[in-house]
């Protein structure tokens, strides 16, 4: 886990909720969409309902804070290099919702 100031630049953009407010938390999965899509298929394990846990690990940036007003939302970011994720998948087995980052077993 590390804090990376270059990540802050990336998230100082218009990341808002459905009401136009700064989101309190936003998570970025640093991977191609096809890699995340595979979590809903062969590279994931169904853990209940429409939720699938990744078999492979991903690089993740979690941004928290959401202070300020759009388009000037301010966040603190933390990078995780090797984490499993859980995504919600639709009936076509495509990712439609990020659920959570799973904790590292060594922590």
From TrEMBL:
Pfam families the UniProt entry points to: RnaseA
Subcellular location: Secreted
Database matches in InterPro entries: RNaseA, RNaseA-like_dom_sf, RNaseA_AS, RNaseA_domain
BP terms from Gene Ontology: defense response to Gram-positive bacterium
Principal location listed in the UniProt entry: secreted
SUPFAM superfamilies tied to this protein: RNase A-like
Any one of the GO CC terms: extracellular region
Keywords: Disulfide bond, Endonuclease, Hydrolase, Nuclease, Secreted
Gene Ontology MF terms in the entry: endonuclease activity; hydrolase activity; nucleic acid binding; RNA nuclease activity
Boundaries of every Ribonuclease A-domain domain copy: 1-102
The keyword Nuclease belongs to this UniProt entry's keyword annotation: yes
Family in the record: Belongs to the pancreatic ribonuclease family.
Full protein name: Ribonuclease A-domain domain-containing protein
